[in-house]
Amino acid sequence: MAQSYRWSVVYAATWRLATELRRRHGSDSLRLIHYYPGHSPTGIVELGPPAEGTEKRIQFVLGGGCNGELALGEPFGSVAADPVGEWESPNYVAQYLARDPRAVVDDIEASAGLPSTSKARSTTPTLLVHRVIATVLERRALARQGFRVINGWIDNSTAGGPAAFARAALGDDLESARYPDEQMKLASPLWQVSPMIDDMGPFVEADALSLGFDEEAGTAWRADRPSAAVDLMAQYDGAARKLAPVVTLVEALLDPR
User: Fold this and answer.
1) Quick one: which of 20, 49, 68, 249 has the most CB atoms within 10 Å?
2) What is the pTM of this model?
3) Dist CA 193 CA 103 (whole Å)
4) Distance between CA 246 and CA 236 in Å, rounded?
5) What does the CA dihedral 177, 178, 182, 186 come to, rounded to 10 degrees?
6) Which residues fall within 8 angstroms of residue 153, CB to CB, at 6 or more apart?
7) What's the CA gap between 170 and 226, in Å, rounded?
8) What's the pLDDT tens digit per position in 60-83?
9) What is the DSSP letter of 55?
10) What CA–CA distances, in Å, run from 53 to 27, 50, 74, 80?
11) HSE-CB of 26 using CA atoms within 13 angstroms
C-alpha cells in the first residue's frame, strides 16, 4: 500500500527537489512542465530537456494514487519506472523527509543519467522564482493551512487552456493571442501558489489570498493585485543575493490588509 502524505508536504518535496535539479543543471537544460492528466487533479511535474533527446524525463507524480512517486524515462507512468539509487520504493517524498535533500538530488541525478555537478548555476529570474516558491512551500508544509501550485497553462489528456488566474493576470494580452500556442507561450511562465484545505485534498479555500509568479519576468504579486508586481531580482540583488529576505517579502503579500 502506497504511503500517504499531506498534500502540502508532497508539493514542498516536489518543488524543492525539482528546483535543486534546475539549479545544478540550468533552466535551459531542464525545462519544468506541469501536466494535469485526466486521472489526477494534481498531475505530474516533469523535468526534461528542452528538445527531444536521449535524456530520461524526471517525473514527480503528485497524485493519481501515487502520492509522491518518482518516474524516470517513460511518460506518465511509475509502474515501469527505472530504479533510483538504492531506494526501496520510488517514493521521493519519503526520501526527502528522511534524508538530506541534496543526497536525494544526487540519487535522482545519477539515475537519470545527468552529469554530476557540485556547483549551482547563477540565479536567474526563472530560478529565483522557483527557489522562492520552493521555500514558501517548505515554510508552510506542516502549517494548518498548506499550499499548492498550479501552472498558468492547463495541459491535460482532454483539453488545454489558460488557468483562470493567468487570464486575470494577462488580460488583453491573452485575448489578443489568436492561436493556442501563442496563449500557451504567454501563460506557461506563470505560476500560482494557493492556500488549500489540506485534509480534503488539493482544493483551494474559498476567497483565499494567493500568490502569482512570472518566471520570465522574475516577478511576484498577490493574485487580486496583478498590477502591483514585485521585482524579485531587484529585491534579491538589494539583499546581497540572499534568499530569505525575498521570501519574507513575498509571504508578506498574503497580508489581507
Assistant:
1) 68
2) 0.89
3) 27
4) 6
5) 20
6) 160, 161, 162, 163, 166, 183, 184, 187, 188
7) 9
8) 888 766 678 888 865 544 444 567
9) S
10) 16, 9, 13, 20
11) 7
